[in-house]
């Protein structure tokens, strides 16, 4: 039922209240045809966000295409964690693997004085993120880069929701995700740990003194990801955080 309401709201630019008021109203023929087409795609397993080309994240509306992941409510908790611990103006922030730009845009929206850079390995994802930054009136520097390869300088905060799913974990995934969302943003080699290792390799060169790294992790990755960063920076403090459902979800690394 939520997916149908989402389609109606986004297709016809209705608020939840307006939708409730109009529930008993006859839909114009052109809208009915559009709605029927959307429901057909939904029944075929296409995520509603891709059908309408929009997703909600942290109070923002973002454009999404099959070139980027659909931002999840769990990732909002990562944004919450960053914002709750950091309020100083002028911080330099890097979002690695920005996708739709969700994390970077949310951080910039609520910390307008931060200097935010967002990177991604996908040129198509960068274009989507640029459009979203413009639509949400957030000034962000975008860089096409595989992790730190094209990144220069240091940052006070680095945040990332990288690809972290191993191919053998598909049994735990929704079929709609497997069939529709981009493999490049979902899967990583080395049992899902490859991108964490790549971040760890050069982290010390890009995280400023007293800087913090915040990352989303897979539901079985708290121990291996913690070990990767403890090995890379032995003096660093690694802090895991579970989501509201109690699942392994986030890691913070303090230099």
UniProtKB/TrEMBL annotation:
<protein>
    <recommendedName>
        <fullName>Release factor glutamine methyltransferase</fullName>
        <ecNumber>2.1.1.297</ecNumber>
    </recommendedName>
</protein>
<dbReference type="InterPro" id="IPR002052">
    <property type="entry name" value="DNA_methylase_N6_adenine_CS"/>
</dbReference>
<dbReference type="GO" id="GO:0102559">
    <property type="term" value="F:peptide chain release factor N(5)-glutamine methyltransferase activity"/>
</dbReference>
<dbReference type="InterPro" id="IPR050320">
    <property type="entry name" value="N5-glutamine_MTase"/>
</dbReference>
<dbReference type="GO" id="GO:0032259">
    <property type="term" value="P:methylation"/>
</dbReference>
<feature type="domain" description="Methyltransferase small">
    <location>
        <begin position="89"/>
        <end position="170"/>
    </location>
</feature>
<dbReference type="InterPro" id="IPR040758">
    <property type="entry name" value="PrmC_N"/>
</dbReference>
<dbReference type="InterPro" id="IPR029063">
    <property type="entry name" value="SAM-dependent_MTases_sf"/>
</dbReference>
<comment type="similarity">
    <text>Belongs to the protein N5-glutamine methyltransferase family. PrmC subfamily.</text>
</comment>
<feature type="domain" description="Release factor glutamine methyltransferase N-terminal">
    <location>
        <begin position="3"/>
        <end position="53"/>
    </location>
</feature>
<dbReference type="InterPro" id="IPR019874">
    <property type="entry name" value="RF_methyltr_PrmC"/>
</dbReference>
<feature type="binding site">
    <location>
        <begin position="161"/>
        <end position="164"/>
    </location>
    <ligand>
        <name>substrate</name>
    </ligand>
</feature>
<keyword id="KW-0808">Transferase</keyword>
<feature type="binding site">
    <location>
        <begin position="97"/>
        <end position="101"/>
    </location>
    <ligand>
        <name>S-adenosyl-L-methionine</name>
    </ligand>
</feature>
<comment type="function">
    <text>Methylates the class 1 translation termination release factors RF1/PrfA and RF2/PrfB on the glutamine residue of the universally conserved GGQ motif.</text>
</comment>
<dbReference type="InterPro" id="IPR004556">
    <property type="entry name" value="HemK-like"/>
</dbReference>
<keyword id="KW-0949">S-adenosyl-L-methionine</keyword>
<feature type="binding site">
    <location>
        <position position="120"/>
    </location>
    <ligand>
        <name>S-adenosyl-L-methionine</name>
    </ligand>
</feature>
<dbReference type="Pfam" id="PF17827">
    <property type="entry name" value="PrmC_N"/>
</dbReference>
<feature type="binding site">
    <location>
        <position position="161"/>
    </location>
    <ligand>
        <name>S-adenosyl-L-methionine</name>
    </ligand>
</feature>
<dbReference type="InterPro" id="IPR007848">
    <property type="entry name" value="Small_mtfrase_dom"/>
</dbReference>
<keyword id="KW-0489">Methyltransferase</keyword>
<dbReference type="GO" id="GO:0003676">
    <property type="term" value="F:nucleic acid binding"/>
</dbReference>
<dbReference type="Pfam" id="PF05175">
    <property type="entry name" value="MTS"/>
</dbReference>
